Amino acid sequence: MSPPKFPFTNSRRTFLHSVGGALLVPSVSQALCEPPGTPGAAKPWRADCRPIRARRPASTLAAAEIQKLKDAYQAMRNLSVSDPNDPRGFTHQANIHCWFCSVSPTPVHGNWQFFAWHRAYLYFHERILGKLINDSEFRLPYWDWEISTHRQMPGAYTAPNNNSNPLWNGTRAMSPTDELPGEDVNEDVMEPVYSAANFGEFGGGVGYSGIPEGSPHGSVHVDVGGFAGDMGTFDTAGRDPIFYAHHANVDKIWSDWNKGASSHENPTDPAFLNLSWSFYDENKMWRSIKASQLLNHETQLRYNYGLSRFREILPCILDWIIVRPPWKLPTSNLYRITVPSESLPVHAILNGRPSPRVSMLPESLAARLGSSNGGKKGNTNRTAGLTVLALNVVRLNTAKLGSAFPRLSTALM
Ligand SMILES: [Cu+2]
User: Fold this and answer.
1) What's the gap in Å between 407 CA and the centre of ligand 1?
2) 10-residue block means of pLDDT along the chain (413 residues)?
3) Distance (Å) from CA 65 to ligand 1 centroid
4) 84 and 183 part of one domain
5) Quick one: pLDDT at residue 220?
6) Residue 1 placed within a domain
7) From ligand 1's centre to the CA of 243, what distance in Å?
8) Which residue from 142, 197, 304, 392 lies 20 to 30 Å from 257 (Cα-Cα)?
């Protein structure tokens, strides 16, 4: 039997959902990917008190950060050679995915375990990498392929493009200059993901997957690995270091979806919250962690994804907005930002189109928005904790805006 493949629904290629049954069948022998040693009963994961640090786009890492990332993976690879039984070695780390996807009686794909399990997997993997380079502030980078200029594999993973690079993998179907096909990761793919109305649609439920698990997630796997390369199949995907950057982005998408609307909540069903998985930690201790312990990645797992892109560039946008009082422009030029309390998401509505990637807007910026039109009456409305700011946009630097935040400029044009 051929190895199980990542299912995806992209119409460009063959529809592979028919292999769903095969996904449960181990294609490698159980011994090859089972956890090493005799783990026995797992000790419960304990609260993490490390500093909160940001996972960052892999393409923006400085040279020293790339070196650190390479050093960490080199150390992990070395461990597989120096002590093949060490569960922190790269081969065992890769086999965790194999075990939970192909051997475990409760597979973590195709159902609501997908996002939570991969978050846990990356978390322990990240801590081990940090421990191996003695850096508690190390965080995984992510490959933000939804951005049109980031569709090549991040340079760290392909330069040099040979086995002297611990981030390289020789089975990829993509060359360093190939780009992911836009149709697998572009706005048309991401829009239904960010606007999924509830967790079932977004993250799946018992026995069914959410929208993004097939595409973009599975599509990117197959784009990188083809059907013969490591990334293209469950058993071997973890052997390619790009896997962890790809899945960090998948994890970020979950985080962004949560922030996109107050209704974008994770399941409260105890059957979900009590889902539990075990991993070896950075000290080779066998630990169990529950879904309820990882739903807030920032406070519980000590990483975030930095400022949202909107929040990063908003001060620049404000500089580009020229507001002309009094308000005489047609409503088609209305630029409205709804600002709930700091703890809730912000929704920007541009020409009637919601922009779901917008995150929190700090009060200081809200104040700036209010004052940028001279504080004329009707411009700022504060009711029940909501500040509604209506700005007539006379001119926006859409060229600059487009390069910084394509979604907004698309909505504006
Ligand atoms: Cu994956």
Assistant:
1) 25
2) 45 29 42 81 94 92 96 98 96 93 86 97 98 97 93 98 98 98 93 92 97 97 95 95 98 90 90 96 97 96 75 45 33 38 33 33 37 33 30 36 40 29
3) 24
4) yes
5) 97
6) no
7) 7
8) 392
Q: Tell me the CA–centroid distance for residue 283 and ligand 1, in Å.
A: 25
Q: Is 395 found in the same domain as 294?
A: no
The Å distance, Cα 218 to ligand 1 centre, comes to: 6
- Please give the tally of structural domains in the chain: 2
Pairing of strands 386-392, 303-304: unpaired
| CA nearest neighbour of 249 among 364, 153, 128 | 153
Question: Going along 281-325, which residue ranges are E strands?
Answer: 286-290, 303-304
What is the pLDDT, as a whole number, of residue 56?
92
Distance 97 CA to ligand 1 centre (A): 9
Is 159 part of a structural domain of the chain? yes
| CA of 161 relative to ligand 1 center, distance in Å | 22
Count CB neighbours of 227 within 10 A. 15
- Note whether 200 and 344 are same-domain residues: no
**Do residue 295 and residue 386 come from a single domain?**
no
Ligand 1 centroid, distance to 385 Cα (angstroms): 40
Separation of 395 CA from ligand 1 center, angstroms?
Answer: 42
Give the integer Cα–Cα distance in Å for 218 and 233.
Answer: 10
Residues 278 and 264 both lie in one domain = yes
Between the CA of 240 and the centroid of ligand 1 the distance, in Å, is: 11
Q: Which residue type occupies 54?
A: A
* Domain termination site, one of 270, 304, 338: 304
**How much distance in Å is there from the Cα of 214 to the middle of ligand 1?**
9
Residues 285 and 315 in one domain: no
* Within a domain: 4: no
Residue 110 belongs to some domain of the structure: yes
Please tell me the predicted confidence (pLDDT) of residue 34: 83
Ligand 1 centroid, distance to 227 Cα (angstroms): 14
Predicted pLDDT at 249: 97
Q: Is residue 320 helix, strand or coil?
A: helix
| Structural domain of 359 | 309-412
Ligand 1 centre from 221 Cα, in Å?
A: 6
pLDDT of residue 3: 45
CA of 26 to the centre of ligand 1 (A): 17
Query: Cβ atoms within 10 A of the Cβ of 133, count?
Result: 17
- The CATH number linked to 189 is 1.10.1280.10
Q: Which of 304, 319, 348 is the last residue of a domain?
A: 304
Provide long-range contacts, Cβ within 8 A and 24+ apart, for 80-89: 85/36, 85/37, 86/36, 86/284, 87/35, 87/36, 87/37, 87/280, 87/284, 88/128, 88/131, 88/132, 88/280, 88/282, 88/284
Same domain flag for 389 and 240:
no
